[in-house]
Specification:
By secondary structure, the protein is an alpha+beta fold. A hairpin with a 2-residue loop joins strand 3 and strand 4. The N terminus is likely disordered. Helix content is about 25%, strand content about 25%. The radius of gyration is 15 Å and the shape is globular.
Amino acid sequence: MNGPSRDACDKSKCRAGRAFYLCTLLKSNGCKLFHLLKGPEAEDHTLYASHTMWENRAVFEAWTKSETFRAAHSRAGDNKPLYLDHPQFEGFEVRQTVRRGKAA
């Protein structure tokens, strides 16, 4: 999925739902990247996961306590019929990054 870029996030493009969430997320200081991942499909559901990258843990935690976070999640209950259960947060810290031609 190709979401909106930081430059594309203005009020005319960020009206509701996922687009609003992505725009508020990408405008947040410290958010570097967002991926929506589609996983395996079963008879009764399809697994999705979101993956974000942040400057550091402190910036992410500050965002989760911000008005921007509350606004982005204010209508989360509207999509309750789409979920089998409450979304579960799982945080990971980078231990190794490998890029073509170099390791960091």
